[in-house]
Amino acid sequence: MRTDLHGPLSAYAARLHATAGDVHHVASPLGAWLLLAVTATTADSDPAVADSAAAELAQALGTDLPSAAEIARTLLDAPHPLVGAATALWHRSGQGDDGPATWRAALPGTTEVGALPDQAGLDAWAREHTLGLIETFPLTVESDVVFILASALATRVSWATPFDVADARALGADSPWAGLLRRALRSPSRGHRCAIVSTARAGDVIVHTAPAQTTDGAGLVVLSVAAAPQVPPAEALAIAYDLSAGAADGAQPTGNRSLFDLPLGEAPLWTLAEERVHTWARDGREERHTAVLPCWSARNDHDLTDPALGFPAAVTTLATALALPEDGFEARQTAVARFDRYGFEAAAVTGMAGITSMPPEGVARTAELRFGHPYAVVAVATDAGADGVTGPWHGVPVFSAWVAEPEEVSEA
C-alpha cells in the first residue's frame, strides 16, 4: 500500500527549505513532518484539543489530522530496510500521568514513551537511531522542559553502480567549481539515469538519478536537478520534488527532451555532440547521456519555530492531550548528508562476451550534463516487492538538499 504523502510533503519541504535560505544545506522535511503527524495521532484521539490548534496543525501537514496520523502509523510501524526511522515521546515523571489514556494508544506502536531522559540519554538516543551520524540531540534538557517529542531518520547505502571519476574541468568552463576541484564524479555507462527535462517553472533542467543497491526490493534513489544559474533555489528544489514523484518507479520524466530536438554544441547546462555509430535504435538515431557532478557533504541545524512549519500548534495539541502545562516551546532539527563516489565497498570480477552480428549504421547523440553550479537533491525511498506490489515507503522523499559547496573526490 503506497502512502499518499508526496503532495503534502512537497509543500512542507518548500516551507522548511525556505527557512534555510539559499545557502548550502541539507534537511529532512519528512523527519519534521512525521513529528507533526505523530502529534496528530494524539489530537485525533482527544476531543479536548482546541479547534484552532488542530486546524493550524492540519494546515501545516497539508492534510486532515486522521489521514496524517494514519500515514505516520503506517510508515513507522512498517520500517524500511534502508531507512531507519524512530520516534519518541518523553515527559517528566509525575507530569502527564493525569492526561487521558487514549493518547498513548493512538501513538504508532514503535514510538518510545517514557520518562524524560537526561542530556546524556537524549544524545545516546540520537546516536543509536542515526547510525552514529549525529552525536548530540538538537535540544537541551533544561529544568523547564516538561516533555520532548523526537523523530530520527537515517540511511547509509551504496550505489548499485559506483561513479567513475572525471577531470573537474568537465563541469564546464563557466562553472565556479571547475577551478576549485581537481576531480569530479562521472555517471557510469550503465545503471544511472540522466535526462534533459522541459519544465514550466524554469525551462530546461538537467536530471541525474543514482539508485542504491536494494534489500528485498527496497532501496533509495538520489535525484539531482540543476536549472539555469538565475533560477532561485526554491524553484529548483520544487522541481526536484515534482520529478521525484516518478523516480522510485524509474519512470521517464514528464517533459523529457529528445536530444535530436536540441541544437548541437555548448549550452549552459550541457554539451551535445553527434557521431556516426552502429546502433540498434529503431529509427537509426540513438540517444546517450552522461552527467558530471561534484562530491558534497553538509551538516546543518535548523530552527523550526516558524509558525508556517506547524510546531507551535503541535506543542499546544500535545500539551492538551497530555494535560501538561505549556508556556513556550523549542523546535530544531540537525541534519547531515554525504554524497560521494561509493557507499559500499566490495570487490568482484565477472566477465562474459556476447558475440552478435554488427548492427546497421546510424547516428548517436551524446549529451554531457554538467552540474557545475548550485543544484537541488532529493533522496526518495523505493519499496516494491518482486510481485510488483509497493509498500508504504515507496516514492517517499526522505532527505533533500541545496548543494552549493562541492568537495574533492576522496583519494581513498
Polypeptide structure, described:
It is a single chain. This protein has 412 residues and is α+β, with helices and mostly antiparallel strands. It folds into 2 domains: 159 residues, Antithrombin, subunit I, domain 2 (Antithrombin, Chain I, domain 2), CATH 3.30.497; 182 residues, no CATH class. It is 23% helix and 29% strand. The protein is built from 8 helices and 18 strands. The strands form 4 sheets. The protein has a 6-stranded antiparallel β-sheet with strand order 1-17-16-9-8-7. A 6-stranded mixed β-sheet has the order 5-6-12-15-11-10, with no helix packed on it. Strands 3-2-4 form a 3-stranded mixed β-sheet, covered by helices on one side. Helix 2 packs parallel to helix 8. The protein is elongated.
Evaluate the radius of gyration.
Answer: 23 Å
Biggest sheet: strands, sense, closure?
A: 6 strands, antiparallel
Q: What fraction, in percent, of the residue positions are helical?
A: 10-25%
> In order across it, which strands form the biggest sheet?
1-17-16-9-8-7
Mean pLDDT comes to: 82
Which strand-content bin applies to the residues?
25-35%
Per DSSP, the total helix count is 8
Strand-and-helix sequence, N→C?
HEHHHEHEHEEEEEEHEEEEHEEEEE
Number of separate domains:
2
